[in-house]
Design brief:
It contains 10 helices and 10 strands. A 10-stranded mixed sheet has the order 1-8-2-7-9-10-3-6-4-5, sandwiched between helices. The longest helix is centred in the last third of the chain and has 15 residues, at about 155-170. It has one domain (about 1-230): ComB-like (putative 2-phosphosulfolactate phosphatase), CATH 3.90.1560. It has helices spanning about 10-15, 25-35, 50-55, 80-85, 105-110, 125-135, 155-170, 175-185, 190-195, 205-210; strands spanning about 1-5, 20, 40-45, 60-65, 70, 95-100, 115-120, 140-145, 215-225, 225-235. α1 packs parallel to α5, α6 (about 125-135) runs parallel beside α7 and α7 runs antiparallel to α8. The protein is α/β, with parallel strands linked by helices and about 240 residues long. About 45% of the residues are buried. β9 (about 215-225) and β10 (about 225-235) form a beta hairpin.
Length: about 240
């Protein structure tokens, strides 16, 4: 099994084999939380217009996401894991959630056209992702880890660090979580939340995003009826 490292939107489009698209701050911390709270499936879209169109056909659809980190007017919630936790579970139970984000969702939409399989990646699902990949028989020839970075345009330590962690779980390569946390926490990627100067960047979000291995399931993207849908797959004990 060969592990290939890629980054950003262009890297997602190049991904081969099994692609793990990583967005720690915050999309792929939000998505597993939504499933944990009972969502039936998620649909990824590239813009607000498509999201509103889907809701017009099904008013029960929940709209979640952002453009350049800010809540989209008319959406039910933004891209904040602490906001998701603060909502009532009934908002998500049995529902379809339509998600639009600048980095993570865009990366998945780019990867599904070439990769054999696309898996969502973040610290909260890292061990489950590695277990799922290592359980394949035969093992995949290529696994591409795509760190989406800041808005999919520049690298960020939380996504690169999570890719290091997943690679460590897959191959045994060195990984020092304390060193990774230091690089993340003192970088602008986390400091912009800690400063509390923008309401759409709550300081609680990094606390949730940097938790490791909270969930024992994987989220897999697939093309379905012209849409990119996300389904949860539980891991066998």
């Amino acid at each position: 099994m060969k592990v290939v490292r890629e980054s950003l939107i262009e890297g997602a489009r190049r991904a081969n084999g099994i692609a793990v698209v990583i967005d720690v701050f915050r999309a792929f911390t939000v998505t597993p939380l939504i499933f944990h709270l009972g969502a039936r499936k998620a649909i990824f879209v590239d813009g607000p217009e498509q999201a509103f169109s889907l809701k017009s056909h099904d008013p029960d659809v929940v709209l979640a996401g952002e453009v350049n980190e800010q809540l989209i007017p008319g959406f039910d919630l933004g891209n904040s894991p602490s906001e998701v936790l603060d909502k009532r579970d009934e908002l998500f139970a049995g529902k379809v959630v339509v998600q639009r984000t600048t980095a993570g969702v865009t990366g998945v939409l780019g990867a599904v056209h070439k990769a054999e399989e696309v898996i969502l990646g973040s610290y909260v699902m890292a061990k489950a992702v590695s277990r799922y990949i290592l359980s394949r028989d035969p093992l995949p020839e290529v696994v591409t880890l795509v760190a989406m970075g800041r808005r999919g345009m520049s690298r960020s330590p939380e996504d690169e660090g999570c890719a290091d962690y997943v690679e460590h779980l897959l191959t045994g390569s060195p990984y020092d979580h304390l060193r990774a946390l230091k690089a993340i926490i003192f970088n602008e990627a986390a400091q912009k939340f800690i400063r509390r100067d923008k309401v759409y960047l709550p300081p609680e979000d990094p606390l949730l995003c940097l938790q490791r291995d909270l969930f024992d399931f994987v989220l897999i993207a697939q093309k379905e009826d012209g849409l990119v849908t996300i389904h949860k797959r539980e891991l066998d004990e």
